[in-house]
Amino acid sequence: MFLALIQKQIKLLLRSPSELLILLVMPIGLIFILSYALGPLMEGDTEISKVEIALVQHGNQEEQVEAFIQMAKDFFPITDELKGQITGMLPVKLLEEQIMENEELKEFVHITKVSESKIDETRNEKEFSAIIEIPENFTFDFLSYQFLNGEKPSFSVYLNEGEQITASIVQTIIDDFQHQYTLNKVLSENGLLSQGMIVPTPEISSTIKTIQSQGEITSKIYYTFSMAVMFILFIAGTIASQSFLEKDTHIFDRILLARIHPITYLSSIIVSTVILAMLQTMILFTFAYFIFDITFNHFDLYLLLTFLLAMVIGGIAAVLSSLNYRYNSASASNVFSNALVAILALLGGSFFNISSLSPGMAKIGMWTPNGAALDGYLKLAQQVSLSDLLPNITNLAILLIALIVLAFLLFPKRGGLE
Q: Does the keyword section mention tRNA processing (predicted)?
């Protein structure tokens, strides 16, 4: 009899074309639309364009060094070694050398020296990621600040707001040099910068990594999984509505007269929902495999995650059915399908990657069945192991237990009959 109840639930759904349209055709259509409409925005061109820096220097750097050396002779002896240190610590020269001598950095960072007479023209053209303007006597003032406790000099950096990524790279480079200047000053003031001492200069290096062990999350992959976990929620509302229709049409009364326990009936709702949820997900994944060429490595882990998600959906269907029967109304399943599914989809990241907008909401989303499953599917798309899925599996298992217990507690002993 239990199997007959399951078959009955499945046949009821298969005989409803409108429900099948929502559960199968609509997610496929949305996967197509969202993948192609938002694909360019989501995937974009991730290659960093070349960082172009314009260097505008007022005055002659060599003349300023010589002028400082002549002045400094009145305060301390100037040896050839000290001259070499002075020449080696000039900020503008150091900046150029660090970029030009670094094999990796110079591939995407280029410095162009611009005449001071063309600075206004350079600003207006906006072809550079940043413009570094060195004021008159900057080198002389810098050396005076380092060795003679003079006033701290400064130079101007104009970042191109239209190129945020490359501008931020320039900002990082400048911050590194500023840190080095501060270090030199502190060492000098505390008598730690002795003659012959070599203060390490900032080594700017970059490590370019291509992660081959992890798959790329394309828009097709993302929206295949996000739509699958969203539309699987509709199965719970659909089954709960159908089960209440059986009560409304007195079919449930005949089931009770056949001496079938209400808990057995509720269990059949859970099992039939699990079967339908698994079938829906497998159909969508098969479609994605052939149409979008999405591979499903570690298929056993996909199956495990899908089964757990389907079990949770079965628990939701049971809770909604219990509420419908207890209050003799289909309001619970209707509210769930019409409102709560959209909220869960938003929190779970079905519409967009919510972690990039709000990490706090992303943590909440991990406690929604669709959010935990979506995160797990995306991990599997990057070819992770079972240990990486444990947080997702744990969350789904906790939700499953809570929903099943709640459903059996809420379901009336005689199906709400007086």
A: no
